[in-house]
């Protein structure tokens, strides 16, 4: 009997593993083979006549209101005290998040102002910005209102006002700059370059590999990032910024930190260079800052060399737009390409998964609800035959526990990855526990199947003795089978393919 259970359980696990592998899509990122030639580790951008270093001026701030279409936002202006003549200006475009001038770009805006550049940090418009809906073209039009306001301020040279974008803002800045001479220059910091869906897959892969997760967890990337999320929306996730970059004719400063695992640091710079060259634009400069993170920060502080170089580049334009060295700083490393993400098949799209989870929940609740109703009505006769309740309960509970732990495991690992931390006990031990619970569910299901079959063959006894027992059996079997299939889809069972 034990050998029969062991052999059948092993076969069931192999079949579930094969089901998960065949359900697709797979995950096999393309290695990054292209390189970018860094000319020198010195990021300094040559000083030209009329440029002033950071700290030259005291800085005064004021708050203005920017009128948008159907709304308004406040913006903070930072100005150099006592600076003579018309000054260049910069409007900062936020990355993901709420984007308040009280918290965002404080160091960058103050540093540039102290070097004689008038800066403007508007609050992000939030009434049209949600997790489910973002319109980068509309956002670009909103930020252009800030550009126009800054161009009209006293002491600002309207022909020398540019825009600074960081992360998600680098999908907005090219829209603002394309075919638009009112934008004098652009600074793209930690630019994703590829559509958000590709960027998300690249970042998740990079973070998870750094955390040391099993390869089976990596295979879940396209099955999550590639799906259409429940309830629709999220159209922006496939926004392609490349056509706008190919119409940028302004000088562009491209900035990455070599400690930024979330961005395609080599691919991004090469793509922007290629795109602006398509526009006939020779004015590009690339800088890599050693160990700097996504915000060009080292140990939580904005890199001072970055601030120095940015101030010199802005003030030195147009000469600094194409001055040597074109590419400088630390050597970047990018292991894989940020590539298009395969879509899951119809049965694994977001709405279908939600429907499946609801069905599973209802199915698994049948047994405890039936038991409770029978108890309240005073029924003491067993609803199931002897030997059936224990493996049935173990199968259901262990399958549900495996899936619940799988979700918790992903959340914990994501937290570790985002904070650049590793924990072998959590990463490896947690995955082993998820698999162990799934295996227990399979074994319990096999034991249940043999007990039901043996009861019918040898003793002519049905597994259920009452109508309620029949519903308990059907609900638990249906819910557990669906859960095991779902666990197989998420690669919990080892695949031999």
TrEMBL record:
Q: Signal sequence: where?
A: 1-23
Q: What is this protein called?
A: Alpha/beta hydrolase
Claim: Metal-binding is one of the keywords in the record: no
UniProt KW keywords: Hydrolase, Membrane, Signal, Transmembrane, Transmembrane helix
Q: Coiled-coil region(s) at which residues?
A: none
What superkingdom heads the lineage?
Bacteria
Write down the species. Answer: Actinotalea lenta
Q: Which residues cross the membrane?
A: 352-372, 392-412, 432-450, 471-492
MF GO annotations: hydrolase activity
């Amino acid at each position: 009997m034990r050998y029969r259970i062991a052999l059948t359980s092993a076969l069931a696990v192999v079949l579930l593993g094969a089901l998960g592998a065949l359900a697709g899509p797979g995950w096999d990122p393309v290695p990054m083979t292209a390189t970018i030639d860094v000319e020198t580790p010195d990021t300094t951008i040559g000083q030209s006549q009329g440029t002033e270093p950071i700290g030259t001026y005291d800085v005064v701030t004021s708050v203005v209101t920017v009128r948008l279409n159907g709304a308004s936002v406040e913006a903070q202006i930072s100005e150099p005290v006592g600076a003579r003549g018309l000054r260049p200006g910069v409007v900062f475009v936020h990355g993901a998040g709420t984007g308040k001038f009280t918290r965002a770009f404080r160091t960058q805006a103050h540093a540039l102002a102290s070097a004689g550049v008038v800066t403007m940090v508007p609050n992000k418009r939030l009434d049209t910005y949600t997790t489910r809906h973002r319109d980068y073209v509309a956002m670009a039009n909103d930020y252009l209102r800030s550009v126009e306001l800054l161009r009209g301020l006293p002491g600002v040279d309207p022909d020398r006002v540019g825009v600074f974008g960081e992360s998600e803002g680098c999908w907005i800045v090219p829209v603002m700059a394309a075919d638009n001479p009112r934008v004098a220059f652009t600074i793209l910091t930690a630019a994703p370059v590829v559509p958000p869906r590709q960027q998300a897959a690249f970042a998740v892969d990079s973070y998870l590999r750094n955390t040391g997760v099993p390869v089976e967890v990596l295979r879940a990337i396209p099955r999550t990032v590639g799906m259409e999320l429940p309830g629709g929306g999220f159209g922006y996730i496939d926004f392609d910024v490349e056509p706008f970059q190919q119409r940028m004719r302004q000088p562009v400063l491209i900035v990455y930190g070599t400690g930024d695992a979330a961005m395609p640091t080599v691919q991004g710079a090469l793509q922007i260079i290629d795109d602006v060259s398509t526009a006939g634009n020779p004015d590009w400069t690339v800088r890599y800052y050693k160990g700097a993170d996504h915000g060009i920060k080292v140990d939580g502080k904005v890199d001072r060399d970055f601030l120095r170089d940015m101030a010199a580049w802005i003030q030195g334009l147009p000469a600094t737009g194409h001055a040597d060295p074109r590419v400088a700083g630390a050597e970047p490393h990018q292991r894989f390409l940020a590539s298009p993400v395969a879509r899951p098949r119809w049965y694994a799209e977001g709405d279908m998964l939600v429907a499946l989870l609801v069905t599973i929940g209802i199915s698994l609740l049948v047994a405890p609800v039936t038991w409770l109703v029978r108890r309240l009505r005073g029924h003491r006769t067993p609803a199931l035959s002897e030997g059936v309740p224990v493996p049935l309960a173990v199968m259901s509970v262990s399958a549900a526990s495996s899936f619940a732990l799988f979700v918790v495991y992903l959340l914990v690992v994501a937290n570790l990855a985002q904070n650049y931390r590793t924990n072998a006990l959590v990463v490896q031990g947690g995955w082993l526990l998820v698999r162990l619970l799934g295996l227990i569910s399979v074994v319990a299901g096999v034991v249940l199947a043999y007990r039901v079959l043996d009861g019918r063959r040898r003793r002519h006894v049905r597994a259920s003795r009452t109508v309620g027992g029949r519903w308990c059996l059907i609900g638990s079997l249906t819910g557990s089978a669906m859960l095991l299939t779902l666990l197989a889809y998420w690669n919990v069972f080892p695949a031999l393919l």
